[in-house]
Structure formats: C-alpha cells, structure tokens
Amino acid sequence: MTACAIEGGTAGAATAADPGPETAGPGPDGPGETGETGERGEPVGVREPAGVGEPVGAGIHAPGAPPAPHTPGTPHAPDVLTLTADGAYGARLTAAPAPPGGQRAWYPERWTLDGPEPYAVPLPLNQPEEPDAQVVPLADGRVLIRRRVADRQTFSLLYPTGPATGELALGAVECEGMVLLPPSPDGRSVYGLTAGDHSSLLWLVAGGSFGPELVAEVPGHCSGGVWLDRAGRMLALDRRPAGGGPVKAVAVDLERNGEVTPLLQIAPASDDRLLLADADSGLLLIRSNAPGHDRLGWGVLGSCLPVRFPECLRPADVAVTPFAVQPGQMLMPESCAVALRVDGPAGSWVGIWRPQGRRLHQVAAPEGWSAGAGFWSRDGVLHLPYANASTPCGVALIDAPGDEKPPPEAGGTDGAGGVGHGTEPSAAVAPPAVCKPVPLGQAPLHRVASTD
Hints:
about 0% helix; 28 strands; 4-stranded antiparallel β-sheet
C-alpha cells in the first residue's frame, strides 16, 4: 500500500502539524464500578454553550507560528483529552487550581461520553501524578497510565471502585522515553513507541498476556501513529531512515511480526507524513512538502488518483490539523466530513471541510474545549468535549455544514466542456471512471503541481 503523485496547488506556507494521539472503541463501565453519576456525583448534560458553531470573525488572521509536531519521548501536555475511536470514553490528566505559590496536584480523570449525559470520574491515588504521565482510555472503561520511574516506563490500569480508585499493575519497560500511540481500534490494546536514531521499538503495553511485550523493531526513527483498519492490525508510522533522508509513512503489519511496507511516496525527496486515516472510506489526510512547502493534502488508500492539496486548507497565518473524520461513508471518501483544529494568535477554533467541497468552514469552539479532541457521528454531527467553570464535563454538538456546488476550475474545463474560473478544486469535478485500484505509488503523474 503506497501513495504517490500530487495534483493541483502551488507551494504555500505550512498549515498543518502532526496530530496528537486520538482513538479506540466503546464498552461497559469498568470492573467494580458502582454508583457513577458525574465528576463529583452529579449528572452533567450534553449542552451547547453560547457561540458554539457560529462563524469565526474576519480579523483573526494575524501572524503566528504553527505548533511544533509531537515526537516520541516528548511529554504530552496535561489536560489533553484522549478519546476512544467512537468517542465512548475519554481520559486526561487534570488538577484542581493550585493555591498561590503552590503546585497543581495532577490526577487521571475518565470521561464517559456515550450515554444520555456525559460525566467525568476522577481517578486519584495516594499521591499525585507527574505532569509527564500519559493516560489512554480502553473500551471497558478502564484507563491505562504510563509513568516514568527513573530509567523505566511503568504501566497500570486504573478504574473506579466505589469511592476509591483501583489499580492493576501491568509491568515496566526499561527505556528513557516512550510515547503511547492512539489506542487500538479493537478497544483493548495499547501500544507504546520508543524511537532511536537507528531503530524504533513498538511495544504492546496493554492487552497482552504477560505484561508489556516487544512486538516489532522498525528500522529508522519513527513517530506519528495512525490506524489503517478496524481490527487493529495495520499501523502507519512516519519513518526517517537510519542514515538520514526524507520522512516517509510506512505500514506495519502487527500480525506478520511487524512487517514494514511503504505507504506514502509522493516525491523521492519529500517528507510525506500520514496525519489521519478513515478505515471505512479509505480517506487519508497527509502532510507533505512535495509542492515546495508543507501542505495539507488528501488521497484515498488504494486509489489510482493522485494526492491533492486544496487551496482552502492553507488559510493565511494559522496552522490547520485534522483530528476527526466522519465514519460510515463506505466507498465515498469525498463526502466525508473532516474536522480540523485551527490554531492562530486568537487561540484555537474548529474547521470543517469535505474533499468534494472547496470551502473550509470555520466555527467557534466551546469554552474549555480540549483542542484537537472530538469525534463524528455517522450522520455528520461533530461532538466536541469541553470543561469549564460552569460545566465540568460537557459535549457541544455541531452539524456539518453543507457545501454548495463548486464553481468550475480556472484555466481549464469544468468537466462538461466549458471553460472554468476560480481556484484549484479539492476534488475532481466529474466522477472518475471506474478502474482497478492500484497503489498510489504507481499512480500516473499526469498532473504535477506547479511551484511558486
């Protein structure tokens, strides 16, 4: 499985950064759990705060640098909410406000989001957690926590047991740094990645039979982590060769002893990273500098069409990062709604876009939104979890806006023989002819992007 070729678009400013972890599946409440009603015992409803979903105003595009991409070994910022694949559960490190001159006492917190009312359950232990600990929710309601203890990484499962917190130790791995990947779509497995200059080790830290297990050694320095299927078998990593060179996304087959195959190869010298993938439609969200600068583009796994870099996905002076794709759009990647985090000097807000459209809809996010956290329902409703002073656990709902029919392409035909005008489209105007799917790495380079 490879992806290659570029279509449309000129070189432009960087508008995308590596995504943070986000994904895995639903399930019942954790073992021994009784009487859960909310973060402090009170139910909290699904609500939409004032201003959510309203268009973002015009004077927000002031100069600002895109956020630095996350790499293995870099601690995740506390208060970042990690969600399961369908958004049933979330987990984060959080803390009550510290007294003046004091330190915040961090503890894990689990969010339940698949019921009629979302609620949060604190999972504190006898001592506070370090702010570089990392938590990931599982489908059974338990929360995996990774802690660094000296030169080891330790792993435990946390779950509510009435008024207290239960802890099941899973074991440890001797290494200085590790980052947990998005939870597997199977809902029970979590993998950790330790990256070195010459090779990277992939560990199964939860879901195994005997504690943490080494499952693959991938040559080169790896980062990222995107699941390509619903079974949790195919994992995409962004790899830089051991001797140096461009970063290319590769696929790792976990059922074949970590067999590595190429996934993205847009240009020989370009850095091609996979940001997001949808297993139902095959839609891929890609960041690459093949057009001359880092650009956000899209392609389809196994398609004979080239990767495209829409102009609307590079708004001025902001960074754009995809974080959720609408599921259930079988064989219709161009109709999938994609949610994007937009970062600028005014803060973070939400972008919504479809490949078949030509417009990036920008809307305000709820106050206290965990930026980059959210999930789509199959019918096109975006769920954004948030917490603020008045709502300790809430979910804002935003309907995906419709896209009007795009105008014809500038300097070309509109698919019906006419001459078009406007910007580069993000998708073909006319549907492509049915053909046998081939890897994008073998796609014809019949339309190459121009450079500035």
